[in-house]
Design goal:
By secondary structure, the chain is mainly alpha-helical. α2 crosses α5. The two termini are 33 Å apart.
Amino acid sequence: MNAIIVEGRSVSKPPYFDGTNLTEWREPMKTFIQSVNFEVWLVIENGPKLPKKLINGEEVLKSVDEFNDEDMKNMELEAKAKTILYCALNPNDLGRISSCHTAKEMWEELDRRVTTSDANSTPPVTTSDANSTPPVSQQTPTSDLYNAPNPEFLEETSDDQRKRFLKHCVPIHKHALNGNWPAAKHILDIYRE
């Protein structure tokens, strides 16, 4: 799936999380789940209603053969929530949440991943070298960052001219597809400098 230029979204498939855009993915995913069944979202937000019974004044989990219709419905909602999340995640993130037992734990683990990566990230070191290209975050408005190529890919290319070209290529293409020629021309003018 091409995550850079998307013409439309599916109402039958959950938004795909490619591992790089959790903050942008979270709200469309929440809305998708709510549109499927709002109760499924509540299971993710609040956790499942596990079927329990009282034995000697103590709550214990029911066995599957003791489930009534309401218990079955609650377990079905949990299964739907987990399935939707499984279908939306890339293989790496599936591995990260594989030990989670509930959809709520899965969602919280994804949140923890973002919180941890934000806490561990350090601001880029800037140099005063006149030939160096400023980081993408300094060149591109925040709303257009998802259109920029992966910075790690740019670092792997050895040719500085190629790096500059690739950094501008995707946004130019996006603006051209949308007919926003002044924005595309502006990027070309930056590239020529």
